[in-house]
Write a structure and sequence with these properties.
2 helices; mainly alpha; rod-shaped; 97% helix
């Protein structure tokens, strides 16, 4: 091989290397462009996911507090009603005891009345009250 052929082969090798570098550079640039294109999308998707989780947490807290406040307010009303019924029952027991001649007769009558009332509630109204209570709680949670 003469010098001219060596120069030609060197020039051809140089051109090939230059073309390879340019093609590699193009691929790298296009990959960088793709990466810069997808970065905002990934950031937005991550932000959306975090916002959705925060929203669901806030909705769960709202429903929980709504159900808890309803239960507490109803329990207070039931306690007040129970205290009222206790006082009425004691008064009725003393009044019946005075009529029947012995105080404990009045308490036995009032206790028997509540026993009958409890049996009626258990055998007749128990299922109805249970269904109404569970429906009310489910309605509170879902609305």
């Amino acid at each position: 091989m003469n010098t001219f052929d060596q120069v030609r082969i060197g020039a051809i090798n140089g051109i090939v290397e230059s073309v390879k570098m340019r093609l590699t550079g193009i691929k790298i640039e296009s990959m960088e462009e793709q990466a810069s294109f997808f970065e905002p999308l990934i950031e937005r998707a991550t932000e959306y996911g975090k916002t959705s989780v925060a929203l669901y947490k806030l909705k769960a807290i709202e429903k929980t507090s709504d159900v808890a406040s309803t239960i507490v307010s109803r329990m207070l009303a039931v306690m007040a009603l129970g205290l009222f019924m206790l006082m009425i029952s004691v008064g009725a027991a003393f009044w019946l005891g005075e009529i029947l001649g012995k105080v404990y007769y009045g308490f036995l009558c009032v206790g028997g009345f509540y026993g009958v009332l409890g049996l009626v509630f258990y055998f007749i109204l128990h299922k109805w009250v249970k269904e109404r209570t569970s429906d009310a709680i489910i309605t509170r949670i879902l609305n």
